[in-house]
Amino acid sequence: MNGFLSVALLIVMSAALFMLPLIPAMAELNRKSDAQPLSVIQQHAGEIRHFADRFRLYIKELEPLLLQAVNTGTTLSGTLPDKTEYLVLGSGKEALRLPLRQSDETCPVLLATGIDLSLPPDTAFSKDVYVAGRFRGGTKNRYRAILGEKEVDLGAESHVMRWVHAVGNFSAGPACQLHGRVSSDTGIQLSGGDSTFQRLNAPQIQFGNPPMSSDFADTAEPSDSWATPPRLLHDGNFEIPDGQTFRGNLVARGVLRIGRHARILGDVKGDRGVVVDEGAILRGSLISSNTMRIGANCDIHGPVIAEKVLILERGTRCGSAEKPTTVSAPWIQVEEGVVVFGTLWAREHGAVVAKV
Amino acid sequence: MIYVLYAIVAFICIYTARHYWFTLNRLFGFQRHPYIDIDTADWPPVTILVAAHNEEKVIANILSALMTVKYPQDKMLVVPVNDRSTDGTREIIDGFVERFPGRIRPFHRAGGKGGKAAALKDAMELAETEVILIFDADYIPGAGLIKQLVAPFFDPEVGGVMGRVVPMNCGTNLLTRLLDLERAGGYQVDQQARMNLRLVPQHGGTVAGVRLSALHEIGGWNDNSLTEDTDLTYRLLLHGWKTVYQNRSECYEEVPETWPVRIKQIMRWAKGHNQAMVTYGLHLLLGKHRASLRERIDGTLLLGVYIMAPVTLVGWILALAVFYEGIAPLHGVVALLSITAYAAIGNLAAFFEIAAAVRLDGNRKRIVLLPFLILGFAVSIFSVSRATIAQVKDALTGAEFHWDKTERFRKVPS
After folding, report:
1. Hey, which residues 334-353 in chain A have their CB within 8 Å of chain B?
2. Which of A88, A143, A234, B334 keeps 20 to 30 A from A161, CA to CA?
3. Which residues of A touch B238 (CB under 8 A)?
4. What is the mean pLDDT of residues A225-247?
C-alpha cells in the first residue's frame, strides 16, 4: 500500500470513528422520540388531594351501581375498563360477612359502597377503597388508599400505604403507620402509641387529646404581620432571654435559643439549630438549617421549617384556625397534646410519641 | 510560556473537579429542598414584575397564566413592565388590564436608559410589597409556581429566590435540543448541587424573586449591569443575604431557535458575567463581608466560568506552541498530556453533568444527543471569547455596553 492510500485510509477511519457516536444522535434527531418538554410537576400544584380527586373521577362510572346496590341491598361485582375488579356493597355490614380474607388474607378488589362501611380486622386491602358514608376499619388492617366522603376511622395498628382523604374527620387508633398522604377537609386526630406519619393536611391536626381551650395569653400588641421589620444578622449563637419581647427579623448564624415565655414579633432563624423553651410565642416563621426543639405550650403563627430533626413538645400549637400554616422537616417527633393547623410534613419519618 | 500553560491546566483541573463534585453530589448526596413543603401559610402580598420589550408574540401567554395561578387574588399584583415597546405589546397589556380590573397595574416606559435592569429599576415605584417576583415575558408559570417562589421568603435570611427554567420548544431543531440539555445540566445538577452544598446558587433574573428590603439594602437594581441577575446574586451575598434555588419550581421558557440569536444571547451573558467578575471578584474572595469561606471560593469560581472560555483557547494554542517549539522534551510531553487530559476529562466532566441531569429528569432517550454538544460547546467557546475580547476593547475605548434583546419565535396570538 502506498503512502497516499495509507494516509487516506487513516483519515477515513478516523472520520468514521468520530462519526460513530453521532449515528444514534442523528437517528434521535430525526425520530424525535424524546423531544417533548420536561413535564412540569407543579402544574397540579402538588395538591395533597390530587390522588383523591383523581380517584373520585375514576370511580365516577360506578355511581349508578352504588345507587343500585344501596337501593337493593345487594352486592355487585364486575370489572372496570382497566381490568380492575370491583365489589360494590349494598349494605355496610356486608363487608364483615364477605369472604374478603383469602389464603393470603388479601382483598384484591376495589371496594366501593354508597353507605357506611365497617371492615373486618387483620385484612390487607390491596386496591383502593371508596366509601360514600362513614368508614370504620378493623384493627391491624393494611390499606392501599381510602377515600371517605364522611368520617374515616382506622383501627389500631393499621397501615396505609399511599393515601387517605376524608371529607369528614379522620382518626387513627394507636400504633397506626400512615405512609404517604393523609388529608381531611375537617380534622385529623392521631393517637399516640408510636403512630407514624408522613404528610398530613387538615384545618386542624391533633395528636392524642390536646386541651381544646388553650390559654395562649398573647399580650403582645398586634402588629402588621407583613410590614417590613428590620433584620438582625448575628454571627454565632444568640439567645432571647426568658420573658423578653423581640421585634424584627432575626438570623443567628449559630444556635438560636428562645427563652421561656419570650415573644417574637417577626421571622427568626438559627443556622446551627433552634431551641424554643416552654411557653414562647412567635408571631412569624421559625426556621432552622439544622435541628429544632420546640418546648411545651408554645404558640407559633408562621411556618416552622427544620432541615434535619424537629421535636414538638406537648401543648404546642402551630398556626391557627384562621391562619393555618406548614410545619415541615425530614424527621419529626410529636408529643401527644400538640395541635397543628394546616400541614404537617415529615419527608422521611414522623412519629407520635408519649414523651420525647 | 510553559508556566502560563501550567496555570491554565491547573484552572481547568479545578473546574473539572468542581463539575464532578456537583454531579456526584446530585447523584448520591443529600438533597436540600427546605421550603418546597410550605403549601399552607398566611401568604404575603406579592408583586410580579413581567419584563417586556417588544414581546407581542409572548406577553399574552404569561399574563393569561398569571391570572390562573393558585395564589390569593387579593394579595397578588401583576406589573407588566413595558419597556419602550414599539410593537403591539402595549395594546395587549392594556387589553388584559381591562379584562382583569385591579389585578394588573401596567408600567409603560416610553424612554430612559435601555436594558432590563433599568426598566425594573424604574418600575420599582409600583412595587410596594416585601416580596417581588420577576419573570421574562416568554415564560409560562404553572398553577403552583407563585406559592413555591414566595415560600422561601418566610426564611429571614433569604434575599433572593431562583426557580428552574425548562425549555418548552426543545423539540424544534438541533439547537433547541442542545439548549435543553445544557439547561438541564445547569439547573438540575449545577444549581441544585450549589443549593445542597450551601454554596452560591445563582439568581437568574427570571422565574425568580427578591426581597424588597434586601434590594433596598444593597442599593436597588444596577442599571449599569448587562446581567442584573448575576450582579444581584453577588451584592446580596456580600450583604449577608442568601439566594436559594428551588429545583422543583419549574417554569417553561422559550429558548433561541437560531444560532445567531443564541450567539448574541451567550455573548451578552458572558459580558455581564465578566463585568460582575471584575466588579466583585477580588472583594468576594478577600474582602471583609458576611459570606462564608465556601461561598467565597464557589462564588469566585462561578464568576470565572465565562472567562474560562478564552483561557481554554489560549491554553490550546500555548500547548501546541510549546509542543512545536520543542522547548524541552518534558514540556512537550506536558503539553501533549494537558491537551489529552482536558479532552478526556475536562470535556467529559461537563458531559457527565448533563448526562446525570438527563437521568435525574427521567428523559433517557435524549441522552444519545450528547455527542452533538461538542458543536454547542465549540460555538460557545468562540462566542464567549469573542465577547470577552470585545469587552476589553470597549473598556479601553470607553464604549458603552449595548443591550441585545433575545428574539422570540412563538407565533403572534390572533
Report:
1. 342-343, 345, 347
2. A88
3. none
4. 84
Q: For residue B180, count other CB atoms closer than 10 A to its CB.
A: 26
User: B156–A250: do the CB atoms touch at under 8 Å?
Assistant: yes
* CA–CA separation, B295 and A340 (whole Å): 36
What does the pLDDT read at residue A224? 46
pTM value is 0.90
pLDDT band at A273 (very low <50, low <70, confident <90, very high): very high
Which chain B positions have a beta carbon within 8 Å of A324's beta carbon?
40-41
Q: pLDDT-based confidence at B365, cuts 50/70/90? A: confident
The x, y and z cell numbers of residue A269, run together, are 432563624
Asked whether the beta carbons of B272 and B233 are under 8 A apart, the reply is: no
Q: Taking CB atoms and an 8 Å limit, are A38 and B363 in contact across chains?
A: yes
Separation in Å, CA of A269 to nearest CA in chain B: 7
Angle at B107 between CA B104 and CA B109, to 5 degrees: 160
- pLDDT above 70 for B248: yes
Instruction: Tell me the pLDDT tens digit for each residue of B76-101.
Output: 999 999 999 999 999 999 999 999 99
Q: In B, which residues are within 8 Å of A33 by CB distance?
A: 365
Closest CA of chain A from B364, distance in Å: 8
Annotated domain spans of chain A: 56-185, 231-353
**What residues of chain B lie within 8 A of the CB of A325, using their CB?**
40-42
- Cβ-defined contact of B171 to A40 (cutoff 8 Å): no
CB-CB under 8 Å, A28 with B369? yes
Q: What burial class does residue B116 get, using C-beta atoms within 10 Å of its C-beta: 0-12 exposed, 13-18 middle, 19+ buried?
A: buried
Range B33-257 has CATH code 3.30.70.120 = no
- Asked whether the beta carbons of residue A249 and residue B156 sit closer than 8 angstroms, the reply is yes
Q: Is the pLDDT of residue A170 over 70?
A: yes
Q: Which residue has the higher pLDDT, B346 or A298?
A: A298
Cβ B177–A21 below 8 Å, yes or no?
no
